[in-house]
Amino acid sequence: MQKKNLWIVLVLLLTSSLQVNAQHAQKDSTYRRWFVGSSLLMLGNFDKTNNPEYIQINAGYRITPKDVVQFRFKRSTYAWPIGIPFGPSFDAPGLNYPGSARILAPQIGYQRFWWKGVYTSVYALNAFEKYMDKNNKKIGNGYTLYLDFYLGYQFKFFKDRFFFEPAIGCSYWPVRTNVPESFKAVEQKWPNYFIQPGLDFGFNL
What we know:
Elements: H1 2-27, E1 34-39, E2 55-62, E3 67-78, E4 99-115, E5 118-133, E6 138-153, E7 155-157, E8 162-177, H2 181-187, E9 193-204
Antiparallel strand pairs: 1-2, 1-9, 2-3, 3-4, 4-5, 5-6, 6-8, 7-8, 8-9
């Protein structure tokens, strides 16, 4: 009788262990490791006066619950010096480019979660630029390497299926080539960094 009871206890323990392992495997599977998303900054496209034609697509993979690699693709058009800060000078008359620049920018980054939803991240953005004059005629191609640093917090919704990541960031460009001279004349008044918000959101697959 004691042997029978012992076997019952062993079976229950084994069953319980299998259930725990199955639950752990489900949580640790690629089901919640992949995610896709974008940025609320695209709402700026509703500005009819200065439509940046901004597009951002994010795709990421969680190596561990705290370590994330992310790939982004950005496209935008801008007509102001990239170092000009938000405020009265931003897009002020006489401070804009004599034309505009259009960029296609693949980006790769690493995100680290430190405590609950607090995270830091760093991204390398390769911007391939096409410069246009005031008549929308192409005047050259260029390249800029941006390094973006963010400090933010991730909010989770609907049982961790959706998330929102407000952040404060700094963009710095150590490499910038083939900028037209007329654009350089405007840029030299401003630094080669820019403080910017981060408003990414995503969906866990």
